[in-house]
Structure formats: C-alpha cells, structure tokens
Design a protein that fits this description.
EC number: 1.14.13.-
Helix content: 25-40%
Distance between the termini: 39 Å
Keywords: Oxidoreductase
Structural class: alpha/beta
Radius of gyration: 24 Å
CATH architecture of the largest domain: 3-Layer(bba) Sandwich
CATH class of the largest domain: Alpha Beta
Shape: globular
Largest sheet: 8 strands, mixed
Enzyme class: oxidoreductase
CATH topology of the largest domain: FAD/NAD(P)-binding domain
Protein name: NAD(P)/FAD-dependent oxidoreductase
GO molecular function, one term: oxidoreductase activity
Number of helices: 14
Length: 496
Amino acid sequence: MNLPQHVHTLIVGAGFAGMGLAARILQTQPQADVLIIERGDDVGGTWRDNTYPGCACDVPTSLYSYSFAPSADWSHTFARQPEIHRYLKKVAADTGVRSRVVTDCELQEAHWDDDEAIWTVRTSRGTLTADVVVAATGALSTPSVPDMPGLEMFGGTTFHSATWNHDHDLAGERVAVIGTGASAVQFVPEIAPAAEHLTVFQRTPAWVIPRLDRELSGSEKSLYRRLPLVQKAVRGSVYSFREALGGVLAHATGLLPVFEMVAKAHLRRQVRDPELRRKLTPNFTIGCKRMLLSNDWLRTLDRPDVTLVDAGLAGVTPEGVVDAVGNEHKVDTIIFATGFTPTEPPVAHALRGANGRTLAEHWDGSPSAYKGTTVAGFPNLFLMYGPNTNLGHSSIVYMLESQSAYIADALNVMHDSGITAFEVTEEAQRRYNTRIQSELQTTVWNKGGCSSWYYDSEGRNSVQWPTFTWKFRSQLQRFDQGNYVSRRRAAKETVA
C-alpha cells in the first residue's frame, strides 16, 4: 500500500492502541479517511517485537484484550506472546483495519502548520499531510540501553531483551543479565538451564508474588463459544477484582502488609539461602514499584549455576562486566533487561507544535497532558497511552479503549460542526494535572519509599493513573469541547 498525499486522520503505530482506535472509528464510519503507519513489518506493536523466551502477559488475558473482540482460543489465563500477536493480527483482519495499515513506514517528523491548520508528516516512505495526527506508539516501545563505560570494547554478544537475538545460541555460555524487572523474571528461568552460568545484576530488588496462571480447558473454551455472555461475565469479575486491588495499592491501605506477607512467604519457599533472601527482600512498601508475577524466578536465582550480584554494574571490559565494588565477571554474552523510556518517548522528538518546538522540548523532561490525551500548543494532536495513564493493577487496554472513545467523539464533533482544529486550553490542562498530582501524593507510588521509572527528570510522577480506571473512563466518555479552542480554516482569496 502506498502513502496517499493527504489523509484526514493519521495514526502512528499499529499496536493495541492504534488498531483499537481505528476499529472504533471504522465501526461507526466505515468510509472514514483514516490511515495507520507502522515502523515494523507487521501489526502488533510490542507483542510483535518482544519475542524473548517466556514472554507473556502479566494481566489476565480475559481483561488484556479488546472488549469488542473476545476470543475463546486463549491457551492460558495469562496469554503468551505468540498468541497475543496472532490475536492482534486476527482482529486487524476481522475489523478491516489491516487494509488501512502501511508497514515499514517510520515517522520521522510531523510539523503543525498553524496558517493552514494541517500537519505535514515526513516518513521513511515519503511525505503526506493530515488534518489530525494520533501518536499511538506506546509507552514501552523503545528499549533503553544504559551508556556503560567500555561497552564498545566488549568482545562478546550484546542485545536488549526487547530485540532478542534468536540467531545467537546461549548453550554453554556465560551470560550476564542486566536488570531484574518484568522481562528478566520471564526469560531468566527459560535460559538458565542452557547457559553454563548466569550472572544477574540487580540494582533494586522487587516484590515477587505467585503467578496464578493455569491452562484453560477445552470445556471452558467451548462454553465461551456457545455462551459469550459467560466470558463477558468472567471479564467483568476479573475487572472488579483488579479495581479492588487497585484501591488497595494506590492508597497504601492497611491491607498492603497482607500482600507483603504473601511475597515473603513466596520468597522463603523458593530460596533456601538466607543471604540470597536478604538480597532479594525490598526495603520499600509493596506496590511502590511494579509487583512481579512469577512462579520460577526466585527458584532460578537459587540455582548453583546462577549468581545474583546486588552491587550494580560499573562498566564493561573486553571479556566481561565489572560490578560496582570492582569485581570483574567474565561473560560471553550481555543481555540488557533495562526497560524502556516512558517519560521520554522518542515520538515526542518528532512532533512539532504551533510554535515550532518539539513535544520533547515543550515537556522538557516532564511530560503532561490533558486527560493523558491532548497537549496545549499542539492542535489536532492526540496521544494514546499518554502521561499519567499507566496502571499498577489493571489492563492498559481498558484505558486505551477509553481514549479511543474520546478521540472518536472528537472526530465526530469536527465532522458535524465543520471545525478544522481543536487545541486544549493551557488552563484546562493545568487544572487537570494539578488535580492528578494532588491525588498521586497519597498513593503508594509516591509514598512507598522507592525510586522507579514512574518519575521523570523533574521528580514528578508523570506515568501513573492515581485512582480507579472507571473514573478515567467516565471522564473520557464524551469530548468536552468547552475545554478546547476550536477554529475553522480561513477562506482563501481567489485571483481572477
């Protein structure tokens, strides 16, 4: 598919966010002028890119899926990466979204022309214009690799978990894993049996609780196919439980010690060495950082051929890595499990607003938006999974569908009212973020005594949503035009 010269609505990214929005738009306007550009070679976003061993969802799949596209084919209650990717490709085909996607097309720059009220968009496959641009590139899409002294001199193999090198055989190798977050807890147990020795570098321990995963039986799947309302009821019950959990986590109630007791019991069962248990016990309130779900991570760290280094990483030599106390560890391969860049999304460097500054320059290291979706100074730009929309307890798909409804309604208002440009007012954005930051002050993410990727360069929690997800949805049910400045394109003079 070739790029058109112009499109009304241009969506950047064909993951859960971008495809969900396109499906929502096409549901009510099948002939809508909407296009998705995707830098990868297929749809799926993070579930296309992350193919590391053991990659799986850490939210029950009954909830981590589109509400408008239930599936009775999931193999487990927590789905694995390959089937999530297959699911997304099927949804793209079934909804007609796939025909609106241009793959291998990376956004390079988008600039708002205030006089013409239009976006000029430069991509790796050419230039086009768009009335509306939606950045649906995800908060966890661009790997973060630390700038380690000496890394360029390392004689072995290096890669990030999000760009797994499947051509490289780890059998019999000495492997260093940098990071102990959500990705590491999934792939380390998978690669430990093959490697000669694993050295895992931990900066901060995390609370780990059991993963209540199980296979879905054939009878369950059959029931869901015959009676879709049963599956819908299951989704609703999982959602309700997660909302209750969110209330506990977000506001650090007296129930948090119960979760801590579960995590400590899990640690005692799986790790025999008391010194290793000490290294793996956090010194902050459970929930402050993302709780990890695993049944075999802790047990793997207790293996004789696995070493946990809690001194951090200081540098790299041609033959290995050096920890913070000066010990060198000889390794053949370094795998970075160092996460992503949610407070400094790369797409922000490509979007230039009305005054010519990029969104990254406008934010200056501290992202903020109105309802996580629009930004003053950037007309006709919508963000999905924007600032303060991340969750610690539930499914981001629920938040994305809430944003989709809001954006689709805004597009309907534009169409019905003949409006060419919307821009949220600075006052509305300021009021909104003042309230969000105030609500965050009482949450475990702000009060739990940890440092996390939720905090930006200004020390603000610009990542987390502070309360129940239904409150977010209720705020985004309708496009609130009163908080926006709207205008129409001036008529051009004709020359006889």
